[in-house]
Amino acid sequence: MFYNEVGQFKTSYRADQALFPIRQDLIALGVFLIFLYAVVPFTFNNFWLNTVVIPTLIFGVATIGLNILTGYAGQLSFGTGAFMGVGAYTAFKLTTYFPEINIVILILTSGVTSAAIGLFFGIPSLRIKGLYLAVATLAAQFFLEWVFIQMHWLNNYSESGAIVAPTRTLFGVAITGPSATASARYLVVLSIVVLLTWIAANLVRGRFGRSWRAVRDMDIAAELIGISLFGAKLRAFAVSSFYCGVSGAMLVFFLYGAAEPNVFDINRSFSILFMVIIGGLGSIYGSFLGAAFIWNLPIIIRLIPLALGLRVEPVYTEFLTSMIEGALIISVLIVEPRGFARLWQIAREKLRLWPFPY
Amino acid sequence: MLDILHKIFVGPFIEMSHAPDLLVQVLWEGFVSGTLYALIALGFVLIYKASSVFNFAQGIMVVFSALTLVGLIEMGLPAWLALLMTVGVMYVLAVSVERTILLPLVNQSQSTMIMATIGLSSFLIGFGGFIFGGEPKSMPVALLGIPTGSMQFSVFNGHINIQNLDLAAAVMALVMVTTLGIFFSKTRIGRALRAVADDHQAALSVGITLKQIWVIVWFTAGIVGLTTGIFWGARSDVSFSLQIIALKALPVLILGGFTSIPGVFIGGLIIGIGEQLFEYYWGVQMGGGTQGWVAYMIALLFLWVMPQGLFGEKIIERI
Q: Which domain holds residue B169?
C-alpha cells in the first residue's frame, strides 16, 4: 500500500538501473538521513553516541570494505584488522608531519597508504584463491601487527607504544582529541560514512562491480569474456583496503582517541568478517546491519542483567558474552545463511504486495 | 648497505658454522614445535577430509580439552578418571556439533561453514572460561605420567639439551600420525571416510552413514586436540592465547596439502624448523618476536612457486 511502485514508469535503461529505482526508497532514505543529521546529534546522549552510533558507523565502513573484497569479488580475507591499522598509523604520522592540513583530508588520504599495502598483499591472488589466499592475508595480518609493535617510528617513539589522536578542528570546532564533543565527532563521522557509502554503492553497480561479481561467480568464465582477472582482483584489494584504512583511522581519531597495536589484531579481522557474513555477502546496506548487530550484541548482553537487577561478576560477563555471541552467530547462520540483507529483501518483496498478496 | 646484506646473507651462516651444537639445538626446538603444529593441523585435516569444513575451532578444541582435563584434576579427581571424563566430554562435543551445526548447515557454502566454526570457537572460549576460569593453568605433568627432566648429548665439541617432555611430544606426534595414516588406509571406517571426502552423495548412495562419520571424525579430531593440548600445556601453560598459535596449522596445511596426512607432518616440520631458524639467526636482529608471522611468509613463498602446496592434488579447472 505504502510501498507500491504503480505509476513509476521507466523509459530508459539508465532509469531502470538507477541507484533507487523505486521512489519510496529514495524518500525513506532522505527521511532517514534527515533523522541522522538533525535529530540524532541533539537527542542522543554521549553514552549512546559513543558506544552505539559512532562505532556502528565506523565499523560499517570497514565492513563495506571487506564486503567489496569478500562479498563482491569473492576473495576471502583475514587481514582487515591490519589494514585498518595501516590507515590509523598513517593518519597519525600524517598529523605529526602536516599539522596544518585538515584532519578530514588526512584521514581520507591515509586510506591511500592502506590501499597500496593492500595491493601488495593482493598480488598473490593472481595465483592462489580460496583458503590458500586467506592464508596469504593472514601473513599480512600477523606481519603488519608485528611491524606496528616493532617500528617505534610509527608511534613517534612514545613510551606506552600507543598512538594518541591530537586535537584538531574543523570550522573552528574541535573534532578530534579529548576536547571534542560526541556530537561534533558524530557529525564528521556521519558525513564521511555517507560519502564513502555513496561511492561504494555506485562502484559496485558500475563496471567495477560487474567485473568483481563475474570474478566471484566464476573466475575462468570471467576471464573468457574478457575481464582481466588480475586487474579486477587487485582493484578489489585496493578499494577494500582503502575503506578499511579510513575506517581504522576514524576508529582511532573519532572514537578511541588513542590506540595500541592490539586494537588491530586478528580478532578484529574476525569480527569484521562476522559483520560481513551476518549482514549479508554482497550488500552495502547489509554491511551496516551486520556491523550494528555484531557491535551491539555484547553491549545488549551486558545490559540485560543490569536491567533485570542481577549482579554478574565482570569475569563471567566476558565469558557469557562470548558464549552467547557464538551461539547467536551460529543460529543466525542456520536461520538465514545469506544474512540480514536477505531478510530485508524478503520483507521488501512482501511489503510490495501488502495487503493483497497473491 | 653492504653491512645489511652481510647481516642477512653471510653473518647468520658464519654463526651457524662456528657453533654447530647451537644449530642442532635450534633445529631440535624447531622439530618439536613442528610436530606439535603438525598435530594441530592433523585435527584440521581429519575434519576437512570428511566434511569439507574448515574447522577454525580446532585451536580452541585443543585449549578446551586441555582446560577440561586440568580443571577436572584441580577439582580433585584422579588423573585417569579426569582423562577418561575429558574423552567423554570430547565425544559429547562431537555429537552436539554434528546435531547443532553440521546437520542444519549441510550444503552451505564454505565461507558460511568457516563462520559457523568461528562462532563455535567463540562459544567454546566462553563455555570453557565460564566453567574453569580464564586464568592460565599449568598442566599437572607428574600426575599424567609425562616424563620431565632433560638429557644432555655432546655433539660437535659442545652439547645439546633435550627435554624429555619434548621427546615424548615428538614421539607421541609421530605415533599419532602413523596410527591415523594406517587407520585411514586400512580400516573399514577409514575407507568410508575417504569415500565421504571424495563425494558426499556417492558415499551416501553406497550406504555410508554421513552423520556417523561426522561424529567419528569430530571425536577423533577432539582426541588429537586433547593430545596436543596435554603436550602443549605441559610445555607452556594452558591458556586461550594458544588459539592464535593454533592458527599456524593453516600454513602447515598449505604446505602439506589439505588432504594428505603424511604431508601434514612434513609441512609442520618445515614451518617449525623454518621459524625457529629465522627467529634465532635473523629475527633477533630485527627486534625479535618474528615467530608470529614467519610461518605465514614461508607458506606464501611456497605458494608463489607451487600454488597447490607440496602434496596437494593438481587442480584442473573447467567451465
A: 21-243
